[in-house]
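Exam revision sheet. Question 4 asks you to relate a sequence to its structure. Input first:
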Amino acid sequence: MKKIITILLLLSTYFVQAQSKKTDQCIKALSNKDFIIDHDNKASFKVESKAAKKLLRIGRLANTKLIEALSDPEKNVMAHWVLCQINFKTVTFAGPKTMLKDGEQVNMYYLGEEKGEGVVIFETKVNGEFKMYFDKPQIEKIIVYWQKKTNGK
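Answer key, structure tokens:
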């Protein structure tokens, strides 16, 4: 009986380590460039990310690493989207609302929980390419939000 328990413990340890390594690889491959806003159709987007799909399969075990990825300006939009998909099974997207900031047109989109909190994605067009980002106060707010939401899960 002790041998069976020992073998099961060793196998579970191996599985957890393999899952953690897979999660790390997927987080590393996340990119905001894979979150594509359709500018021809209002409030429409698509996600083209193999890493995100793998993280969805991993599920809530990836929450901690995804929350850490929210601090990375190259990954935070995708990390937030994956967190919404894993924890709510859906994500709400609305916009754009346009404003001028420092003489530059900025589009704003909401991404988050349908009847809850979310973040505003800011988007600017630089040299013909769109660049998405969260501002610093929103990053701090959404990290705290996800830490609270996932703490009990």
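Marking note for examiners. Helices lie at 2-29, 50-58, 63-69, 76-88, 136-151.
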